[in-house]
Design a protein that fits this description.
homotetramer, alpha/beta, 7-stranded mixed sheet, two-stranded antiparallel sheet, globular, 217 residues
């Protein structure tokens, strides 16, 4: 077995000047957690090429765990996605200028996949560190959902058995500081610690303990 | 064919003294839209019996269209649900005091179903009447999602071919007027008009036209 | 005594195509409440002329009560303003393209005036009708605050003793229906009823009863 | 002159287990900024004693600058208050169980005081460091507003000429991590850096430069 963990981040998109998920993978690349090496991949915000980049990384690193990360505007904490749906319905064009409208991601694919990482345990473990976190019931219908869906579909179709999921990040403070509406934000250090905890939890404790989840949004 | 349309609403639950979906079905019951009779059913907020009530109504009315409705705290407009997921993960107990934690709704069922009503056309038609509406990407993990999922599963499993979906409603003004935080609300008249428009649109125009959906949440 | 009540509304501004306060005064003009005639005035969204328009109306109608109304983006209910401050600090230019930055409204004037209408009783009376309402602690620093401040200053300086205040209104549903973010809104009928109740309460019950105000924002 | 700067923080109150303003003064006490010593005072959340504690600290330290700090639920950034009003209207009881309802703070006092620190320059300087900040137009009607009002009134009445203001802080991450609704939060390090910048700016640059303030809330 490879002893690799793959973490993806996205390039900058839209009106943003940074992407917290890109900063995150720069911080995590090459780290070792519980004996596994963290490998990272920067994914384009592109309807047609983002999963291809991921697929190459999966083939190159043969990971035993995959966590996709991305920015979600206005989130107030680390949000661990429960579900990816078989649709692309973009609120804004991707970085190539393409606006997907109600498109099916995989013809004949299931309507949705659930994350195969222990989302509830990850939420609990991150909160126990003092970092705000919750389970999110929608990853949207933009590129993050697309990457999560197609990654889970690829793993399923090829019987790879790799646990995988998507974790959305809030704005970085320096991004929020440039915006008039001043959205919620989170320090990069906390994001890095949260993702390390997610990796550790997913490796150590793959089955969700039954605990009350008042924190789903 | 029956020439019936079935619309469900929920009983009052939690700390609420009313439920807009219950008021709504009282207003709509017996109405005729495009030659179809509106039949309604009041569904209990109960993990174990809510779908049974719906199933009886489906058998009794043999509807050609089903629209479930329910209250979603804090929504600012009519929200047409895109997806129902195969999970019950309750933020609060149901009316029988039961708290579902990360339960599968249908063993062996798909992770999700998409609504089979034209959600985009419905949103557009309601907005064209001057009533706020948007497509919602999550129906939550409480009873509304449960009812939507199990209704779509029942239709699928039995090859009934009935278009079905779920539409969430904001608080009524008189509910918001009793709350210190003063959440968003909508007049019952607008809700009734919106659901009539949804019925008309689903009957007349079952295929979604490709229009830009900037209003998904 | 004149037996007149003066209610102001604002013209359309910014990106909006309507202004609920303008629709409101069209509905109320000429109505009779508790024996008083409702007189109305449309005020320009203009740093330099909005109060002049109000002053002319005060001289013409000699009202025994003045209620200014205006639109406040994103409010979820009728919001009765507590305070107007001696500053113009515009988030966007006025309708003449003028952007006031940290300007004093009245040199030598007090930092603020409190509304001289019974804000708490008005809130309670509107809520008792089933219409969402709350006390707002800031009227902002745009034209609405300006009009409220200069009206109260004019009344004070000239010892007119006319009770006066400002009530902010949410978006109308048809405005929210055109916006992607779908802000909270309120039906015009409810706004009209709420302002009638405010007039009645201010005429009948000028002293605020001591009740718990959990609804201040 | 004393070469002291006085910064106040509040004790824990309500359902909270921490108060960021208390953590903040523990971090800042004894620091030296631009040759001034930072003196701090912990103020009780008490209608009747909070200002007395402040008054003693003013007499003891003879500061050349006063910045009050406190927690404001749900704020997304450092919020620099523009105004304090002559009213106590508590949403919840204070730590002694006292619920002030529409009480005047100072009989015969002005309706409001403006902060006498350069709020706009402070906002700009904090943002230039990459920390979210904005000007707030209401400090509420609880103890923070009370402390700001009475401090400015005391300075004015006694002709002390000390610049003074109030800066509200978001929740700390570890507080938000314990809450189901997951409100916005900010790291303590950023709060400390922001208040240091506020002190430096108020000492160096007492007159507000005219810059566009799109970030007022």
């Amino acid at each position: 077995m490879s002893r690799n963990v793959l973490i993806s981040g996205y390039e900058v998109f839209g009106n943003n000047t940074m992407n917290p998920s890109l900063e995150l993978i720069h911080c995590l690349d090459g780290e070792v957690i519980d004996g596994r090496r963290i490998c990272t991949v920067e994914v384009p915000v592109n309807r047609h090429t983002c999963f291809e980049t991921m697929e190459k990384a999966i083939k190159a690193y043969q990971p035993e765990l995959i966590i996709c990360t991305g920015l979600a505007d206005g989130r107030t904490g680390i949000s661990i996605e429960r579900t990816a749906v078989n649709v692309a319905d973009f609120p804004v064009p991707d970085n190539a200028g393409y606006l997907a409208l109600n498109e099916t991601l995989e013809e004949g694919g299931p309507a949705a996949y659930f994350a195969t990482i222990p989302i509830r345990n990850i939420m609990t473990a991150i909160r126990e560190e003092g970092i705000p976190a919750y389970i999110s019931n929608t990853a949207g219908t933009y590129c993050c959902n697309l990457l999560m869906y197609r990654t889970l579909h690829y793993i399923s179709k090829n019987n790879l058995g790799i646990p995988a999921g998507m974790i959305h990040l809030p704005f970085l403070p320096q991004m929020a500081a440039d915006m008039n509406m001043v959205p919620a934000s989170m320090d990069l250090t906390h994001m890095v610690d949260a993702i390390k905890t997610a990796v550790h939890t997913a490796l150590a404790d793959p089955l969700d303990r039954a605990v009350i989840c008042g924190a789903c949004q």
